[in-house]
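#onboarding

Welcome to the new folks! Below is a worked example of what a typical request in this channel looks like: someone posts a single protein sequence, and someone else replies with the predicted structure as tokens. Don't worry about understanding the tokens yet, we'll cover that in week two.

Example request:
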Amino acid sequence: MVRVYSFDIGSLSFEGVLKDFKDTVHPELIAKARQYKHPGDQLRSLTSALLLRWALLHDFDLYHPYPFPCSENGKPYHTSDGHEFNISHGKNRVVVATSDTPVGVDVEYKRTNRFKVAERFFSPYELEMIRKSHDKDACFTMFWCIKEAFLKYTGTGLTAPLQSFTVIKNNSHFKIMENGRDNKTVRIQYYQDKEDYFYAVCHNITERFSDIHTVTYDEFFEIEKEKP
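Example response:
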């Protein structure tokens, strides 16, 4: 089963969150966040770790306060089978997806004036879809978001060229074409909210998850009470 959680960090600060959770956050996670120069990046790094910890405890009854190992392509993973997860953040949103099979998630705030980027990295089909769209910025962000989620699902990340596969849109359904063949193993779910945030999730489970759960700051504190 796939579950997706979103956390709004727009009203928070890195130092404020650190003050609230400094006694429960592993020093390596704090050090990792402080490596970023921009306070916004520090905040996204720290809250990503907190949301992941919350999701793993909530979904798997698994308390993991330590940094995770990463694959050679930089994807963090859990060493035991059946505990799959993926993290993304964009502007004021932090997102975590969990599953018992591989999963990739991406969140993007609506990108503007990126057609030159699309010409470099997108397939002819995707470029044509953007050209025909009445909202080219939204169409670009949609394709970018789904492409990132797919690469995170496969575990390759941006080591694989974005133009090495094509996202095909058919009304509200999507599929991935690789080397002229339909990748029938991947399922794509895509959402756009009223605040111009775009979400994409790639997984291999037939059933669709129902919704993205918005986690509140208070829920972070509640889960702390339940930890082992």
